[in-house]
TetR family transcriptional regulator (Streptomyces gilvifuscus), 212 residues
Amino acid sequence: MSRRREEILDAALAIADERGLDALSMRALAERVGVTPMALYRHVRDKSALLDAMVGRLLAALLPADRERDEPWAERLRSLAQVCRQVTQRHPWAAQLLFSRPAVTPDAVRAVDIIYTALLEAGVPEPEVPRLERLVSTFVIGFAASEAAGRFAPGPLDPRGRRGQLPESTLPGHSKLAPWLDLPLDLDAEFQADLEDILHMVEAAARKRPRG
């Protein structure tokens, strides 16, 4: 990737960080880097290509270091999930973009391939690998998106807690669970527990491998 294209992507990420993804336009980006909008098209074909390149930049952070490539499959998935969450914590708009764009750039495809390879090494039957990759990705990005958007805001204002205060005859399940509906303050621990549940599902899928 050319140095100028790197500068353009840096500027695009900065605009999204400062003003949100909706504020990112080719005109705003051109103003940020000090060129005309037409000059951008020598480096980025259009807005769609820019967003794809931003996905690639974000997912490049998930690529493992050399020392991590030989770790067991579960450790690689744990590391990838943690880094993905950290990326969305640094860039709260990132989950929206990751959910809305396919992985088509080289770095993005390599990040998906890490999950494919880990699932294959876990013993998951090949026909099941794409489905479980989508499950892993959706969990990680979905948790990060909910966290970034404030949906997991803890404390007495948690809407699930308020729903549990409604009359028992209206929502008996909520009434029964009222003491447990306020989310734990430790979302790190919840993320870890959820991730371990996902890994157990991977192991269960691997045990279903047909014996030849």
Notes: DSSP finds eleven helices and no strands in the chain. The chain has a mean pLDDT of 84.
